[in-house]
Automatic annotation (TrEMBL), chain A:
Name of the coding gene: cltrn
Gene Ontology cellular-component annotations: extracellular exosome; plasma membrane
Chain segments carrying region Disordered: 205-245
Provenance organism: Oreochromis niloticus
Protein origin, superkingdom: Eukaryota
Protein's UniProt name: Collectrin, amino acid transport regulator
Biological process annotations from GO: positive regulation of amino acid transport
Topology class, membrane: Single-pass type I membrane protein
Location(s) in or outside the cell: Cell membrane
Top-level taxonomy: Eukaryota, Metazoa, Chordata, Craniata, Vertebrata
Transmembrane residue ranges: 175-199
Pfam families: Collectrin (PF16959)
Location of the Collectrin-like domain: 54-245
Automatic annotation (TrEMBL), chain B:
Keywords (A to Z) from UniProt: Membrane, Metal-binding, Sodium, Symport, Transmembrane, Transmembrane helix, Transport
SUPFAM superfamilies, sorted: SNF-like (SSF161070)
Family listed: Belongs to the sodium:neurotransmitter symporter (SNF) (TC 2.A.22) family.
Record's protein name: Transporter
One GO CC annotation: brush border membrane
Domain of life: Eukaryota
Compartment list: Membrane
Record-linked Pfam families: SNF (PF00209)
GO biological process assignments: sodium ion transmembrane transport
UniProt-recorded Gene Ontology molecular function terms: metal ion binding; neutral L-amino acid transmembrane transporter activity; symporter activity
């Protein structure tokens, strides 16, 4: 029973070093990772990868990759890390079956880091079926991403779509909170503005009542008390005391 | 033209120059006054500078030949905008009344002009504040990270995104589904959307608190609402210019296409934009200038405010298009990037072998060598010009295009908050003028008892507008708003504006008007004003009115719907209106315009049938009637 499993890992190729600074600001987090990995992994259920790709030697291809790709240092070490991560994923999914690095077989590597791989059971040459490998990868996707410091968008397994994280929805929608604050301020404003003239009138009434009492007391104002408090109207006053003849 | 229509009894209805001097020195009456000149100018600037400067002018500029559009705009600003503005300021300052009072004083048969202004201000205020409610909704939603319009929600079984959102964009989905919850046709009313009702309530109560006592309260609010937009525009300009692609947007906006000047539609749009942009014929400006002192230099004010308005339009167009340029560049880069990725994947090229610069060359090479593979790839054509021309107008610009640009900027919530606060302030200061244009005529008409305080008048206006405005919170509310925008705020204003000019120049009398201005300002208006008031501006307005009317009547009445089942989804589809809409259109556009002749006829019949009671119009002139003590006439 042979089934083909396509796993593809790609990165966003255009996030190159030529990106101007302000966009790089945004991409800072993924910049370092993008420069590293751009691989197409296609696990082929043919154990014999070379049958799929006549006459090419795997190790030869691996070395080609590291020299051709200038954007990131894909190397045999990185491939080892990948195999180790996959082995971890298989172990985690199958609850302890002792998958080793040697059970992950990449092949058909291309100039642009993308390759197929197959997974065999530990200590045998039996192939693990596509479904199982897919489920294992899905379960440990974050860990595999983390190993390469990549994301779902930059490390793609062909055929496995990332389960979408549900958007965070807080208990009270934030807009209701802001709405409440605004409405509170507005209500306070309305009440204050409506009450202000009433309060003014009340104060004035009290002041008038006080004034009336004090008015009754003043009789003729002399200079000492308050005759000079008013504004002197000089319209009808002459400079001279006596009219001129 | 020395045409002057007979106008008996004018002197009895208006205060004479001596009365004005006396009123000036005594500070008599309980008429409100501006605290200082700055308050008055800020209020007028706020009323004139509104959402149209931000989302209508840039679109017109870009679609009518960029830099070349400035030419008709400036010409019509000088020949149409400034004279009308000066006229409204002068007549308000002279007659010291709101719009109904002014026209009734000039001639009782003209009261209809004031009533038409009242109706138009009411209808426009109703839908304008709904836009404010939408802005507030977006503002409330901007206080979170990530912004709600940056993500699509998941569908029912969490396998993928909601279909409607996946097929269009996140911003489209948030606007049409989560904000408006729009239905597919104007007949399909749907129910009231509770969150929209809350937002509308917030908008009206906030407006009420600012306008509660007329210019006493709104005069304080304008210090912020009129100045903050300029600050935010400057911040956005600085931010925009540092973004990639912004200069392309500005270049696109201002690249002149002189052929557009030959297109009459350009001139028509420029004229209409100048007219609506100045908020003329709403009655608010007349009211505002009536609170001035008699000797205020209204000529200078008119010129100053016109210049500010024009400059603000150009400035905000620059800012908006710098951001649109950024958005277009981002979308172009994404589109090209996807194409490059497809190519690299298909041919297993190393990374960075294909870049945006050599993409076209590589594509043509590959098309020659492997055409069959190229055909199989989902390559899209990325057209920068097309993306730039997507600068939509109106609500589309603010709630779709601009929000999309904001989510691509770093620290998005900050920019979103700033942007929507700016829009909110722009709209709020315009609403002050609208409310003034409704409340003061209402008081002048004496329908309700005079003893009721102003707070009650303002409160009633806000309450009734809110209640009727609930129609815009239905699922089909967006379509109703577009209807109101097209018909309530267009033709009636042109009619009223023309009637205003005609009344002042030919019924009030240009000679009397010149003398008034000489009395108020100190010199007679020069030949420019005479020529524009008497001939040029009325002609321009008639022209615009006729053309506008003809284009509206001849074109098929359609409206754009958001329909998931439409063929071109997510592009909006044009559908014809149902037949009962014509009744609504007539109510919106016809009734305010017809109020002018109807009221004149009404007054005519009232005079005729009640002729025997006409002695009441001329009270006996006695000295005792004129004695005042403590500021009140002795009864």
């Amino acid at each position: 029973m042979i089934a083909y499993a396509d796993f593809k890992i790609e990165s966003l190729a255009y996030f190159s070093k030529k990106m101007p600074n302000h966009v790089r600001w945004v991409l800072q987090q993924i910049k370092s990772r993008i420069e590293r990995l751009n691989a197409l992994f296609r696990p082929v259920m043919h154990y014999n990868c070379s049958a799929h790709h006549e006459g090419t030697n795997m190790t030869e291809e691996a070395s080609n990759i590291s020299s051709d790709t200038a954007a990131y240092p894909w190397s045999k070490n990185e491939m080892f890390l990948f195999r180790a991560a996959l082995a971890f994923a298989m172990r985690d999914y199958t609850n302890g079956e002792e998958f080793g690095v040697s059970d992950i077989h990449p092949c058909d590597e291309t100039k642009r880091v993308s390759f197929w791989f197959v997974v065999t059971r530990p200590n045998t040459t039996d192939l693990v079926d596509k479904g199982t490998v897919e489920m294992a990868i899905k379960k440990s996707r974050n860990r595999i991403n983390g190993a390469f410091l990549l994301t779902d968008q930059t490390l793609e397994f062909d055929g496995i779509y990332p389960t979408l994280a549900a958007p965070v929805s807080p208990d009270t929608p934030p807009w209701l909170i802001v709405f409440g604050v605004v409405m509170g301020a507005v209500s306070v404003g309305i009440i204050a503005l409506l009450a202000y003239p009433l309060v003014q009138r009340k104060l004035k009434k009290n002041k008038d009542a006080d004034d009336e009492d004090s008015d009754e007391e003043t009789g003729v104002k002399t200079a000492e008390i308050g005759a000079n408090d008013g504004i002197y109207n000089s319209t009808f006053s002459d400079d001279e005391r006596f009219t001129q003849m | 033209m020395k045409l002057k229509l007979p106008n008996p009894g004018l002197d009895d209805r208006i205060p004479s120059h001596e009365d004005l001097e006396r009123m000036e020195t005594e500070e008599a009456g309980d008429r409100p006054k501006w605290d200082n000149k700055a308050q008055y100018l800020l209020t007028c600037v706020g009323f004139c500078v509104g959402l149209g400067n931000v989302w209508r002018f840039p679109y017109l500029c870009q679609s009518h030949g960029g830099g070349a559009f400035m030419i008709p705009f400036l010409i019509l600003l000088v020949l149409e905008g400034i004279p009308l503005l000066h006229l409204e300021f002068a007549i308000g300052q002279r007659l010291r009344k709101g719009s109904v009072g002014v026209w009734r004083a000039i001639n009782p048969y003209l009261t209809g002009v004031g009533i038409a202004s009242l109706l138009v201000s009411f209808l426009v205020g109703m839908y304008y504040n709904t836009i404010m409610a939408w802005i507030m909704w977006y503002l409330f939603n901007s206080f979170q990270d990530p912004l709600p319009w940056s993500q699509c929600p998941l569908n029912a079984n969490s396998t993928g995104l909601v279909a409607e959102c996946a097929r269009s964009t996140t911003v489209d989905y948030f606007w049409y589904r989560e904000t408006l919850n729009t239905s597919a046709a104007i007949d399909d009313a749907g129910g009231l959307q509770w969150w929209m009702v809350l937002a509308l309530f917030a908008a009206w109560t906030l407006l009420y608190v600012c306008c509660i006592r007329g210019i006493e309260t709104s005069g304080k609010a304008v210090y912020i609402t009129s100045t903050l937009p300029y600050l935010v525009l400057t911040i956005f300009l600085i931010r925009g210019l540092t973004l990639k692609g912004s200069t392309q947007g500005i270049k696109y906006l201002f690249t002149p296409d002189v052929d557009e000047l030959m297109n009459p539609q350009t001139w028509l749009d420029a004229g209409a934009q100048v007219f609506y942009s100045f908020s003329l014929a709403f009655g608010g400006l007349i009211s505002f200038s009536s609170y001035n002192s008699v000797h205020n230099n209204c000529e200078q004010d008119a010129v100053l405010i016109s210049i500010i308005n024009g400059c603000t339009s150009v400035y905000s167009a620059t800012v908006i298009y710098s951001i649109i340029g950024f958005r277009a560049t981002q979308k172009f880069d994404e589109c090209q990037g996807d194409n490059i990725l497809h190519l690299i994947n298909a041919f297993d090229y190393p990374e960075n072998s294909i870049t945006i610069d050599n993409y076209d060359q590589v594509l043509t090479n590959l098309n020659q060598t492997n055409p069959d593979i190229i055909q199989g790839l989902p390559l899209k054509t990325c057209d920068m010009q097309n993306l730039l021309s997507q600068g939509v107008e109106g609500t589309g610009l603010a709630f779709i295009v601009f929000t999309e640009a904001i989510i691509k900027m770093p620290v998005s919530p900050l920019w979103a908050v700033l942007f929507f606060i700016m829009l909110f302030c722009l709209g709020l200061s315009t609403m002050f003028g609208n409310i003034e244009g409704v409340v003061v005529p209402l008081q002048d008409l004496r329908i309700l008892p005079q003893t009721w305080p102003k707070e009650v008048f303002t409160g009633l206006t806000c309450l009734i507008s809110f209640a009727l405005g609930l129609i815009f919170t239905l699922r089909s509310g967006n379509y109703w708003l577009a209807l109101f925008d097209n018909f309530a705020g267009s033709i009636p204003l042109l009619v009223i504006g023309f009637c205003e000019m005609f009344s002042v120049i030919y019924i009030y009398g240009i000679d009397r008007f010149n003398k008034d201005i000489e009395f108020m300002v100190g010199h007679k208006p020069n030949i420019f004003w005479q020529a524009t008031w008497r001939v040029i501006s009325p002609l321009i307005m008639i022209f615009i009115l006729i053309f506008y009317f003809v284009t509206q009547v001849t074109k098929d009445l359609t409206y754009l719907v958001w329909d998931e089942e439409a063929a071109n989804f997510p592009v909006l589809e044009a559908r014809p209106y149902p037949s009962w809409i014509y009744v609504i259109i007539f109510i919106l556009a016809g009734i305010p315009s017809l109020a002018i002749p109807i009221f004149a006829l009404f007054k005519f019949f009232q005079r005729k049938c009640c002729k025997d009671k006409s002695y009441k119009d001329h009270p006996v002139d006695t000295i005792s009637a004129k004695i005042e003590m403590n500021g009140k006439t002795i009864d």
